[in-house]
Amino acid sequence: MEKEEQEKKEGKLTLVLALATLIAAFGSSFQYGYNVSAVNSPSEFMQQFYNNTHNERTGDFLDSFTLTLLWSVTVSMFPFGGFIGSLLVGPLVDKLGRKGALLFNNIFSIIPAILMGCSKVAKTYELIIASRLLVGICAGVSSNVVPMYLGELAPKNLRGALGVVPQLFITVGILVAQLFGFRDLLANEEGWPILLGLTGVPAALQLILLPFFPESPRYLLIQKKDESAAEKALQRLRGWEDVQWEIEEIRKEDEAEKAAGFISVWKLFKMRSLRWQLISIIALMAGQQLSGVNAIYYYADEIYLSAGVKSNDVQFVTAGTGAVNVFMTIVTVFVVELWGRRLLLLIGFSTCLTACIVVTVALVLQSTITWMPYVSIVCVIAYVIGHALGPSPIPALFITEIFLQSSRPAAYMIGGSVHWLSNFAVGLIFPFIQVGLGAYSFIIFAVICLLTTIYIFMVIPETKGKSFIEINQIFAKKNKVSDVHPDKEELQDLPPAMVQ
């Protein structure tokens, strides 16, 4: 009877949990999305600034190759910074905690926001390039720490919904940057430094508000060995006094992991008991970035123009696509606990696969069949919907779910590194693929979507509504080991409350 009452209580989204989720996601994930998109609209004005600055220094203008190279470096510094940020995740979350890492990370947003805002006055484009690296580091840390923090705060029946919230705020950040990037607002000669500098506002708000919210109870109990603090944090998050059942679950997870000790990245690669979890996050993170999402956005303007959209109106259509992305991510927040992670991944990658194939046909035939450009527009929107349903939000949530406390930071470092290196590679290589293959470049993305879909179907289990330990028991069978760690047998004798 007591267990049933506990189960009924589980679904409660308390005010403390909701606010902690919103502040963490707005202060960190929003910035990631904002900085992805902020340099797109004002690019011509910024390149003109680079040219004029160089001319004032030397008396010469930059040749087109050097200007393009400088701009490519400016854009690609962001994913490169993201890769560096991913490498910092493990040490930061272990030393400072999940909340502490997010608060410290705001340094990498507020300082570059000020530098970018002052770059035009200082007549130094190098400040922009250095700042893009710093906001990239900020995004690399936050894209890994926010899902980890929220996944550890949430009760298991809300873990999926709250785990998708960071991706929702990334899409909102992209949309806000697109809206501020209208020519009449900030994407003009005077406004672009303000557009770039605004990224510091969410960071400043997080720095003020997040200290009032609890640290991850799992971090407090397992790493800090502070049961009293963990209990108080859980009581605030759940809204009731009796949290012993959940404390017991965390303690059981801790006992099960003591044999493994701290798991470094190198150790994680060597552990047979975590082999399929590791392969799965690498496959999902690579599939997410190499499936063509950035290329679709890159191609979108060209597709809209060929369909007869006036060049001045493309910015509004692009913002409309961003709004569709936000709407579908909101839908995912509500259906992830209903449909499950696996189904959303399968639907998402299958939709992207179909869109890539059809858009290839449409781009090849658009000069011969008059209505083909409209098919291309439908494909862009369908692709965005598919990616927002599964490939964008689920992989980061999945890392929290399939790894236990001791291996989670190392897993996020590996997953984050794959994410950002794939992002960097697509940004660097896609323009050359586009020149070489043209419309047929989407066939490469279709193949990646197909392979990822097959992998998900064959390997990825459903994790909806399961405790971290139950999920690891599923993978233990795949890894052909006796349990989470082969030399620890505690989990075989879990109390009934733990395996219900």
Automatic annotation (TrEMBL):
Amino-acid biosynthesis as UniProt keyword: no
PROSITE patterns: MFS, SUGAR_TRANSPORT_1, SUGAR_TRANSPORT_2
Catalytic activity from the UniProt record: D-fructose(out) = D-fructose(in)
Membrane-topology annotation of the record: Multi-pass membrane protein
Record domain Major facilitator superfamily (MFS) profile: where: 21-464
Record lineage: Eukaryota, Metazoa, Chordata, Craniata, Vertebrata
Signal sequence annotation: none
Organism the protein comes from: Microtus ochrogaster (Prairie vole)
Domain of life: Eukaryota
Family: Belongs to the major facilitator superfamily. Sugar transporter (TC 2.A.1.1) family. Glucose transporter subfamily.
Keywords for this protein: Acetylation, Cell membrane, Glycoprotein, Membrane, Sugar transport, Transmembrane, Transmembrane helix, Transport
Keyword Transmembrane helix: yes
Major subcellular location class: membrane
Cell compartments where the protein resides: Apical cell membrane; Cell membrane, Sarcolemma
Name of protein: Solute carrier family 2, facilitated glucose transporter member 5
Transmembrane segments: 12-34, 69-90, 102-122, 128-150, 162-180, 192-213, 278-300, 316-336, 343-365, 371-389, 410-433, 439-460
